[in-house]
Amino acid sequence: MIKIHQKVNVTVSQDTDNPYLKGLFEPVDTEYIANTDSLKVVGEIPKDLNGMYVRNSHNQAHEPLGTYHPFDGDGMVHSIRFENGKAEYRNRFIETIGFLAEQAKGGKSLWPGMLEPHLETYRGWGAMGTMKDNAGVDVMGHNGKIIASMSQCGEPYQLDPYTLETVGTAKWGSKLMPTGICSHFKLDVDTGELMFFNFSENFPFMNYGVVDKNDQLVHYEPIELPGPRWPHDMGITKNYTILHDLPYHFDPEDLKVGVRKLKFFPNQPSRFGVVPRRGNNSQVKWFEASPCFILHLSNCYEDGDEVIMDGCIQDNPGKPAVGVQDGNPYDRIRKHLDKHHTRTHMYRWRFNMKTGETKEEVLDDEITEFPVVANQTVGKPYRYSYNVLFKAGDWHMMGIKKFDLFTGGQQRYEFGDNRFGSEPVIALRKDAKSEDDGYLLTFVTDMNTLSSECIILDAKDLAAGPVAIVSLPARITNGTHACWIEQERLDGETAHSKSIANVTH
Questions:
Q1: Sheet containing 368-372: which strands, arranged edge to edge?
Q2: Which of 67, 64, 53 is nearest to 98 (CA)?
Q3: What is the pTM of this model?
Q4: Per-residue pLDDT tens for 258-305?
Q5: CB 133 within 8 A of CB 97
Q6: How many CB atoms lie within 10 A of CB 212?
Q7: Nearest-CA neighbor of 435 among 445, 448, 423, 426?
Q8: Which residues face 443 on adjacent strands?
Q9: Neighbours of 332 (CB within 10 A)
Q10: Peptide linkage before 70 cis (omega within 30 of 0)
């Protein structure tokens, strides 16, 4: 049976001209619970696929104030949990303070989006201090909870891993006031440690922290930067964390008069700070590299004296203007989101910890982004990166490309005409013999039929097509980031007490 948990009164106008509030981005108003008894399954769900695929997304509930950017929307989490050949799907709004406040006001937006902070009506969160904390970008399983956050810094919201109900904010989050946590925190599954950073417009401009396996903040240190920055990701290895100081940030002269205008400074080098996992500002070793902007890393690891960082570099960085918008702002948003415009591709940086030298190389020149690796591979030497292929001209994920970094080989799977996917995850078998011994999962929305599904691919052979396809109760929106939580990590010793058959609320 498909159950409706809740239906939210979404007040976004059906006549909107904003392309990021309709089509693939049209908000969802219904929260569902459904299992394989009520979901169509093509093929057979592997019985050795046990765990949970969780994907975050921006799902705007109310008519926006000013120009809506697709990163402004309320967070909504979609999940599908697998156990012994069965599946259960759920979706929930993340009930942030901002979401609840707007519901209490009868379904009215109270905060402006990231493009127009000058429209501020209430103080908010974020690196600018004006935005609603939507917790709609990143998601990660840690210490029996799901943590969600937004990319401009906010509170670390915790969700129940089975029901997706919002539990509240992590207790350690109160120690991070007023800056919070930025998306793209990293998890070491071997130690259970969660590494994170935040940034702001005030000195020291960045902070770095570690939360241990028991959900305790055990390390939190200021990292001094030359000025306000706008970093997006970070990397970890077994012993180090890599922090970013990139030449795409607010113009410091404009900031002096209260104007926030993002610019690329091509004569300013990129800087990467390699710091011991529980190191402080004095222990950061800074490396300079070619000017660039980076959204997402694939993986980092140590190789002798070198720390290796692989990710997707932007040759032509671009973000939409912040402040009063002239002309058609959607064209600028599209350019910022279009990976073919920013020419994003796989790249490698080598930082020599003894000599201080940086070496750089192109790994691949095809346009890809949202690179992912298996949880068990994060921070270690690796062979495979699974990257998203994008439709030119828009932020539509059209397929997956698998890189073999040993041989240079590749595989790909494309979703089909007018079908668009999500950030994938790699779910390894419990006793996996290699880092692709398992499955690749992603949500796909078919705009021809206005329906959505979860597809399961063999991570060794993407080109073979889906092992199984699980239809969802309704179309879901375009999404941001995702994670895979192995069954044994869901809630430790009590995992078996909450089988799919027993979870009904």
A1: 368-372, 384-390, 397-404, 410-414
A2: 64
A3: 0.93
A4: 777 788 899 999 999 999 999 999 999 999 999 999 999 999 999 999
A5: yes
A6: 15
A7: 426
A8: 454
A9: 19
A10: no
